[in-house]
Amino acid sequence: MENFGSLAILLAFAVAIYAVVASVAGRIKNKPFLIASGRRAVYSVWVLMTLASAVLLHALLTNDFRFAYVAEHSNRTLPTVYKFAAWWSGQEGSLMFWSWLLATYAAVVVFTNRRKHRDMMPYVVAVLSAVQTFFLLMNNFVANPFQMLAVDKLITSVPDGSGLSPLLQYPAMAIHPPMLYLGYVGFAVPFAFAIGSLITRQPGEGWIHTTRRWTLITWLFQGTGIMLGAAWAYHVLGWGGYWGWDPVENASLLPWLSGTAFLHSVMMQEKKGMMKVWNIVLVSTTFFLCILGTMMTRSGLVQSVHAFARSDIGKYFVSFLAIGIAGTIYLILDRLDYLKSDSQLEAVVSRESSFLFNNLILLASCFAVLWGTLFPKISEAVSGDQISLDADWFNRLMVPIGLFLLFLTGVGPLFAWRRTSGESLRRNFQWPGLAAVVLVAALFVAGVRHPYALISFGFCLFVALTVIVEFYKGARSIAAKSGFSLPHAVVELTHRNTRRYGGYLVHMAIVLIFIGITGKAFNLSDTREMAQGDTMQIGHYSLHMNRMDQGENDQYQWHKAIIQVTKDGADLGTLEPEKRFYKASKQGTSEIGLRQRPNEDLYLNFAGMSDDNQRAIIQAYVNPLVFWIWAGGLVLIGGTLVCLVPSKVKMQYARTSVVGVAKTHVKA
Amino acid sequence: MIIAITSVLAIAIIAFILTIRPRDLPAAEPESPFAHLDDRKAAIYENLRDLQFEYRVGKLSDTDYQNTKKDLQKELATVLAEVDRLKAQLAGKPAVAAPAPAPKPKAERAAETKPIVFVCPSCGATFEKSLKFCGECGKSMKAASA
Amino acid sequence: MAGTSARSTFMRRSGWFAKLEMPVLALLLALAALAQTAAEKPSLDTRRVGMRLACQCGCKDSVATCSMLECGFSKPAKERIARMQAVGMSDQQIIDAFVREYGPGIYLAPPSSAGWVVPYAAVAAGLLVVWWFIRKYRRPRPLPELGTIEIDDPALSKYKDQIEKDLADLE
After folding, report:
1. All structural domains of chain C with their residue ranges
2. Is the pLDDT higher at A179 or at B140?
3. Which of A467, A471, A555, B104 is nearest to C170 (CA)?
4. What is the pLDDT of residue A668?
5. Are strands A150-151 and A154-155 parallel, antiparallel or unpaired?
């Protein structure tokens, strides 16, 4: 079996190289057969990678501990679903998962576009296959998942594996990596189309139309992955927070930020044919940040909680990045004339300018996160000292940037395309702005003094109102014309322009997420050693230790504290934070006790036993408004899905027909 | 056994990639030399539609609406002229500004059930509130009625 | 002597560290709760000192951020810091004690000013680019190839009527 797997990935490597060569040669020499064979090579890579993955999965599911990978990342008592998840939980497996996803994407892209874009498709195939070749190189020669355990040249087996890291044995964590990977890998597609279009100098914005959905879906996966990662950190790591600016978290945030900038700035190109260079730069940046993110996760370049084993794969990634970036820059510089803007700015105060600022801020935040993440390496190179920047640094830098971004979220859609006069601005700003000021004043009177929290709540209300007014005005107009009821008109309005109104929903999701993050300014926390019968107070809550419990099963030993919670005298039942110690991996984890409500979470963590082993160390947190982060995450997914629904009123125009030319092209 | 399976797989893959019969080549969709211009035209119509909608819901001032609309119409005319130029060029004729076939939006028009409040004297469109310029045809509503 | 020189370097750095960072840190207590990785959560005071000490377990992290549970170095070190704080030693005294024991290599410098300057410089550079972009594209240019087209041009008035008619059908 293992030989079969090894051979499959080796063959895939050769076939991927062939796909690059055949496509490019076929395009240059104008040989349709060669191009078609390049396409088939893409399908073949997918078949081979699927077979190889099946071999690895089979080994994982049947506890074949002759495989080094299986022995390291699984054990007999591991629940089946996590045996499956072990596919992407280790270095070698996750790189193969990457390869397989890319092969899948490439096969889908090639199949759906097999009759379209005759000019640029061979290059799209070539770019995708080149990336595929790189990852197959890793799979074959650097991090081979089919490495066997051997003693004296004889393949041997170990009785039981060392198990999956218990931190990863959590439902959100089982699907978090695939989500992120679907995002990371997916940005390769718009990148490939951008490069293909650049090489062949396609007129118009064809690549943007073709990849619009890809980009959105990919962005959605990435966003969902980030949210799941935050949920995992909150529910599993037991430190009462959801985002620690850990390098691996940052790595997933980077392409999402630049991808968000891209989603906005393509509108400039679609509407006005502007920012062509910039969009190519953005989509390339996003793709390379995805590769960088994969590298950070995989190579242990920067220290992190969940970086995998340190290895030398970093240098391969660096070489790939260097070649890719250099090639892209050369292409862009060489074809600047083709990327000339079609139109100009009519006025400084306009939607166009607001997009410029949106891009500036998104990229600045992206850069700040990248800088902070790589700072230990940079400072080591410059001064010899590894200086790591902690969460405080990130928060102090990112909070103002984030607030400004929130502000732009509200302001941007209020500007009209091309020009916005003071009169238009007054109409749109007056009421939401006034309401925000009133809210801030009211909060201040009510005793809220935290400056960032005040600003944030003010902006949140402002943005929310602008979005609501936008829906209301549009729906009212439709209702007036068609006699629909207002809710029906809202649906009708959204259906008529799903991208715009789905986008507004996403803006609303951002507001909810910001509300949740702002709650952090009012967090309470306390740590106590508690024996049976002890009581502690936190905020309005009173925590009474009823009893402690312990036990053991196949997988782990556990200690549990059963804590009675009362709030202002009212009984709220018990919370049972638990501490586990996994036998196979010899690691401890926390199962927190959580009472989640829209206004605040009560979060209890069993941190361990006191030195005399008599009392439990209980960490208690009151985290206001965290609920809204997860709510915002759901709205974000919903809004993006709305964007993906085709608009109802899709105006179709008769295409220009040509008389007297060999082919007529009439397409309704 | 494994050796046999792997060899068969390798041969099958290579055969699949290399043996392409002429009928396996997918017939390419016709690509119009006007595709990018048609796209551009569609985008401008889309922009105009948005503009009218935003004006009607009251997001835009009258001057903004008028100016932007003029700009968009100018752009549209440029694109139409470019289509004609390209067409003439493809037909091997000297470039003359022949009229292009008119684009035909097939958007359905919603039935007007709203009680009529304000009527445009130029095109007959109806609005629920008073506008300086007609949201449909863009002509001044006041001037004509005065 | 090596000890004293290391100590004086530290004094200088910790001077601005103490002046600048402490009040802000205190203000942002809640935010500082982030970045905690291990299940055992030391107090914020212990963490603050731990951040300035390199963990010696081979992880290249700081004592405060070492992610290893039951780490042979960071766990006792955290406890020791907590004990020293309990008897009223200042951050600087604790760090000095560690430096005396393990040599100057254990000291982790706080973020240098470059950490702050560069991101803001990037924002400023970005603003310049935006300004340049607006200036460049603000300048009205004649439309390519055809020159400016007046909508009143008789050849285009035909388009104009068509456009008007189409627009009347839009909704």
Report:
1. 2-108, 114-169
2. A179
3. B104
4. 34
5. antiparallel
Of C41, C110, C118, the CB nearest to A371: C118
B-chain residues near A655 (CB < 8 A): 32, 34-35, 38
Supply the DSSP symbol for A623: E
**B123 CA to chain C: closest CA distance, Å?**
8
Looking at residues C124-148, what average pLDDT do you find?
71
Residues B85 and B54 reside in one and the same domain: yes
Rounded CA-CA distance B83/C146 in Å is: 12
For residue C23, give Cα distances in angstroms to A355, A406, A531, C15: 37, 27, 35, 13
Q: Work out the angle at residue A37's Cα, subtended by the Cα atoms of residues A31 and A43, and round it to the nearest 5 degrees.
A: 150
| Cα→Cα distances A565→A525, A576, A595, Å | 16, 10, 10
Give CA–CA dist B140/B131, Å, rounded.
Answer: 9
Residues of chain C positioned with their CB less than 8 A from the CB of B66: none
Domain ranges of chain A: 1-169, 212-408, 409-514, 522-627
Of the partner residues B17, B71, B104, the one whose CB lies closest to the CB of residue A15: B17
pLDDT computed for residue C106 by the predictor: 76
Shortest CA distance to A507 belongs to which of A427, A619, A408?
A408
Nearest CA in chain C to A648: C171
What confidence category does residue C144 fall into, taking pLDDT thresholds of 50, 70 and 90?
very low
pLDDT at residue number A441:
95
| Residue-level pLDDT at A257 | 96
Q: State whether ipTM is beyond 0.85.
A: no
Answer yes or no: do B59 and B89 share one domain: yes
Per DSSP, the three-state class of C112 is coil
CA distances from residue A539 to A342, A530, A534 in whole angstroms, order as listed: 60, 18, 17
Q: How many domains does chain B have?
A: 2
* CB–CB contact C171 B107 (8 Å): yes
Strand, helix or coil at C62? strand
Boundary-marking domain end, from B99, B121, B136: B99
Name which residue leads in pLDDT, A625 or C109: A625
Domain C2-108: homologous superfamily in CATH? Cytochrome C biogenesis protein (1.10.8.640)
Q: Do residues B60 and B87 share a domain? A: yes
Q: Copy the structure tokens of residue C76.
A: 């006792």
* pLDDT for res A545: 92
Q: What is the mean pLDDT of each run of 10 residues along chain A (668 residues)?
A: 88 95 92 91 96 94 90 87 88 91 95 87 96 95 87 75 79 84 93 94 83 92 93 83 84 94 91 87 96 81 51 84 96 88 79 90 93 83 72 85 92 85 84 94 92 94 94 90 89 90 95 94 87 90 91 87 91 90 79 91 86 83 94 96 83 52 37
Based on the fold, state whether residues B41 and B76 are members of the same structural domain.
yes
Query: In this predicted model, which residue has the larger pLDDT, C90 or A216?
Result: A216
Q: Establish if B37 touches chain A: CB-CB under 8 angstroms.
A: yes
B80 touches chain C (CB under 8 A): yes
Q: Which domain holds residue B146?
A: 113-146
Residues B36 and B79 in one domain: yes
B137/C164 Cβ within 8 A: yes
Taking the Cβ of residue C113 and every Cβ of chain A, the question of whether any pair is shorter than 8 Å is answered with: no
Residue B20 in domain: no
Residues of B in contact with C164 (CB under 8 A): 137-138
Is residue C142's pLDDT more than 60?
Answer: no
Asked if C149 and B48 come within 8 Å (Cβ–Cβ), the reply is: no
Does residue B68 belong to any structural domain of this protein?
Answer: yes
